[in-house]
Specification:
The protein is α+β, with helices and mostly antiparallel strands. It has three helices and three strands; from the N terminus they run βββααα.
């Protein structure tokens, strides 16, 4: 589904916390700095950590499609070949 979610999963020794982002179809388990899943002692601790991870994700800078399109338009203006007569009217003081 296309919605943000957080949750927990019971495992041996405790609980895993996970988040689901809108653009992903799978849960992302919370991991430590080594890339290992973090096992929390309680379900509440796992859910609190998942909530903090989701807030951190939502508050980070995100790319906008419009920014990318704007950058592409500027690049195309610099590198696309122009029609040979495009500036002829402007040079003579005429505007089409």
């Amino acid at each position: 589904m296309n919605e943000f979610q957080i949750g927990t999963e019971a495992v041996a020794g405790g609980h895993l916390g996970w988040i689901r982002k809108v653009h992903r179809a799978t849960n992302e388990v919370l991991k430590d700095h080594r890339g290992e899943p973090i096992i929390f002692p309680t379900q509440d601790a796992a859910k609190a950590a998942a909530g903090e991870a989701m807030v951190a994700y939502l508050n980070k800078p995100m790319l906008r499609d419009g920014a990318r399109v704007e950058a592409m338009s500027k690049a195309e203006a610099l590198f696309k070949p122009r029609h040979p007569f495009a500036d002829a009217g402007v040079a003579n003081g005429k505007v089409a």
